[in-house]
Amino acid sequence: MLLWIENALNAANGVLWGPPMLIMLFGTHLFLTVRLRFIQRHLGTAVRLSLKRDEAGGGDISPFGALTTALAATVGTGNIVGVATAVSLGGPGAVLWMWLTGVFGISTKYAEALLSVKYRVKGPTGAMAGGPMYVLERGLGWKWLGVLFAAFTVVASFGIGNMVQANALSHLLLENTGAPLWASGLVMSLLTGVVVLGGIKSIARVCQALVPFMALFYIVGCLVLLVMFADTLPETVALIVKSAFTGQAAAGGFLGAGMREAVRFGIARGLFSNESGMGSAPIVAAAAQTRNPVRQALVSASGTFWDTVVICLMTGLVIVNSGKWQEGFQGAKLSHEAFASLPVMGPVILTVGMATFVFSTILGWSYYGEKACEYLAGARSVLFYRALWTVAVLAGALVNLPLVWSFADFANALMALPNLVALLLLSGVVVAETRKYLWEGNLDAEDAGPEDRKRP
């Protein structure tokens, strides 16, 4: 039965992640980059704003808290196992396509965060609520599509944000320490429950402390590995660029469909990692304390830079430079073999990186799914969702990995489609807001806020 489901999901993913989706996703990145006059050039301003608390704005958490929570959700197994999977299935050229998805995806992350802040509302409890479901409902008047997006988000949260993460870490711990899968899952489940029961403020506090440490620790570890084997690094970079357009297969040689696979897995894993265009990160951006939509949009956009342009690139370089991708290893095993090139410290870097990445992602995604569940069924459904979430962590640690990844890719595509529609149809609103606050030098101007946009 499980094999049949996996085959069905793979067949569906072959359609969902075919040329139309890749063109629509990457095309949206390019379209918004052009319309927003290469918003990526404002990354310096974005980083500066992320470190400042916007006392004049309304919201539940600081801009930095929103950014670290979003980064907690995005910096996960996609940055390690996802990159390894892309290389093993699409060859080293997938690293370049993943990186380009991050570079141009900055504009998409900016646009979706801007819209989510602009159309956010105050919920029944007084807390902010926003995201593509509210954009679809209030910006386009398509509540039915907002409901679909929210439903896809709830489903996707248990895949990309929960079971995939728990599965990857439990199997890595089994490989490196011999810890039983059930034990790893139980510990993760208990820790998750302690934090998520406190809501967004509890999640943000943990993420603000955890994310900077885990990112710095992992990046430094990757740099050590790259410096140790710097003699082969120029050849590795050349191979990544060349095979992105020629399609060198992971096991060596060349395949006719190799370039297509490099593009497909590079973009798919890029989306899995940075989530630009999927509509998840804007849900927490809407909770940020900000005086106007553009300020938080810039802060949110910087998350894609850190996640994919920096961290995913580091992982890709380490994996390809190790040469282990040519030996038939896949997924977590490939990551393990690549980092094992550095005796003792390599496995430590990988294990600590995975543990912190996974736990933070489970926390961040719990909020995404919770807000989508609240949109669909009201505030009373939140407690049930949190309980189910902690149980799913344990289940995810025990299930079959290929099935979980296939499920995650399927759910990601279902989320991306309605969100991309909203981004394209409301791109004029994004441009108008950007002109008003950024291009005309009014970043400190205050928006009217969501007080008059309460949702019953």
Question: In summary, what is this structure?
Answer:
It is globular and about 55 Å long.
Write a structural description.
- By secondary structure, the chain is mainly α.
- It has 19 helices and 2 strands.
- α6 (93-118) runs antiparallel to α14 (293-322), α9 packs antiparallel against α17 (382-398) and α15 runs antiparallel to α16 (345-377).
- The longest helix has 35 residues, at 143-177.
- It starts with a helix and ends in a 17-residue tail after the last helix.
Q: Poorly predicted ranges (pLDDT <50, ≥5 residues)?
A: 250-257, 451-456
Order of helices and strands: HHHHHHEEHHHHHHHHHHHHH
- What amount of the residues lies in strands? under 5%
Distance between the termini: 43 Å
Q: Look at the structure and give the mean pLDDT.
A: 84
Instruction: Report the total helices.
Output: 19
Across the major sheet, the strand order is 1-2
Helix content: over 70%
State the secondary-structure class: mainly alpha
Quantity of strands, as a count: 2
Shape: globular
Query: Measured on Cα atoms, how large is the radius of gyration?
Result: 20 Å
Main β-sheet description? 2 strands, antiparallel
